[in-house]
Amino acid sequence: MQIKKLLLSLWYGYGFLFLGSHAFFIKPNTAQIQVISSQSLSLHRILPINNYPGRPHEPIRRFVLAPKTKTAFLRLIRSQNILPTCLLYTSGAWIMKPSLKDILKNGAFFVGLVNTLLILSSSMIVNDIYDIEIDRKNNPDRPLVTGEISKPVAIDMVIGFLGAAELFNLAFLPESLFHIVHAAILQILIYTPLLKKIPGIKNVSCATLVAFSMVFSALIISSQENIIKNVNYPLFSILVSTVFLGSLYNEILLDVCDVSGDRENHIWTLPVLFGKNGAISILGLILLFGLNVCYTRFISIYKKPLQGLPIVLLFSPMVYHLFQIKRHKFEKNVILCAVRQTNIPLLLSVGYFSFLSYQQMQIPNKLVSL
C-alpha cells in the first residue's frame, strides 16, 4: 500500500513539475551575461569563458534570480500575506492541541504548512493571470501588467507550485486529507473564471479559503481524533468565524477600490451593484451582525461575559475605519490603510483565543491531579 501511494505521488508530482520546470531553468545559448528583458523574467546570467584545470574553454553557467525579478516575484505572490497565513495556520493546530512539543514533532503539520503556502501563492498568481486586463485599470503596477514577469512564466509557476503541493499531499499527508487539498486546488482554479463573477460568492469564497487554513491544521494535528469532541472545539469554531469575518471585511473593501475596473469588465461586485456607499453600509451591517453572533455564542458556551468582551473591543477599530472611509470620500489610500490595519485585530484575536485554549486545557489536567 505504501509503495502504491509513493508511486502515485511521484507520478502526479513528476507530471506537474516537469511541465513547470522550464520557467525556472532556462538554458542559455551564449557565453555572455544575458538578461531576458528589463520587462520580463530574468532567470540566468552566464559568466564569460574561463580556463580552469581539467575543463578549459567551458563557460561557467550560474542560474540566479535577478534582484528586480525577486521583487516582482514577491509582489506576484503577495508575500505580505505569508506571515499572517503562517500564524493563522499555526493557531488552528495550537488551539486544538496547545502543546508546542506535540506540534513540532508532527511532520505532517509542516507539510501542511508548505502546502498551504504553495496553494496561497498559486491563488494569487492565477488571479493575476486572469485579471491582466482588469489590472491595467485597477492595479497597473502588478508584475504581469508591467511585463516584469511574463504570462507563460506565471502559468509555469502555478503548475510547479500546485504540482509540488499535490506531491507533498499524496506522499506525506493522511489519506483522510487528500480530498481537502484537492478541493482547495479546485477552488483557486475556478475562482477567477467562475466564482469571481457571482456577486457575494467571490467574497465568501476568498474568506472561506483564508479561514480554512486554520481548519486544515486542526485536522492534521487531530488526525487520530474527532475534533468536535475536543474540549477547545467551541472556542476554535468561534475563532474561525471571526477570522472569516475579518477576511470578508477585507475582500469587500478591496472591491470598493476596484469598482471602476470591475464595472468596465462586467464583474458584478457589491460596490458595482449598490455603489460605494451601499457596499460600505452592507459591510457595516455584516460586521456588526457577525460580531454579535460571535460574542453571543461565546458567552452562551462559557458563561463568562467579560471574557467575551475583548472579541468586540478588538474589532471595534474596523467599524471606525468604515466611517473614516466615508469621511474621506472613498480614497484608495484610506481603504488600503484600513485593509492593512485589519491584520492587527485579527492577530490579537488569535493570540487571545490561543491563551484561552491553553487555559481551558489546564482545567482537565488540574482535575486529574486532584
Write the layout of secondary structure elements.
Layout: H1 2-20, E1 45-46, E2 61-62, H2 67-76, H3 82-96, H4 100-104, H5 107-130, H6 132-138, H7 143-146, H8 151-172, H9 178-191, H10 201-221, H11 233-257, H12 259-264, H13 270-302, H14 305-327, H15 332-341, H16 343-369
Antiparallel strand pairs: 1-2
Helix pairs in contact: 1-8, 3-5, 3-10, 3-16, 5-8, 5-9, 5-10, 8-9, 9-10, 10-11, 11-13, 11-15, 11-16, 13-14, 14-15, 14-16
Uncertain ranges: 6-65, 364-370
Which shape, going by the Cα principal axes? globular
What is the name of the CATH class of the largest domain? Mainly Alpha
Oligomer: single chain
- How do the SSEs run, as a string of H and E? HEEHHHHHHHHHHHHHHH
The beta-strand count equals 2
Number of domains: 2
Residue share in helices? over 70%
Task: Put the structure in a nutshell.
This protein has helices at 2-20, 67-76, 82-96, 100-104, 107-130, 132-138, 143-146, 151-172, 178-191, 201-221, 233-257, 259-264, 270-302, 305-327, 332-341, 343-369, and strands at residues 45-46, 61-62. By secondary structure, it is mainly α.
Structure description:
- With 370 residues, the protein is mainly α.
- The protein folds into two domains: 1-22 and 67-228, Orthogonal Bundle (Tetracycline Repressor, domain 2); 231-359, Up-down Bundle (Four Helix Bundle (Hemerythrin (Met), subunit A)), CATH 1.20.120.
- Helix content is 72%, strand content 1%.
- The chain is built from 16 helices and two strands.
- A two-stranded antiparallel ribbon has the order 1-2.
- The longest helix has 33 residues, at 270-302.
- The chain starts with a helix and ends with a helix.
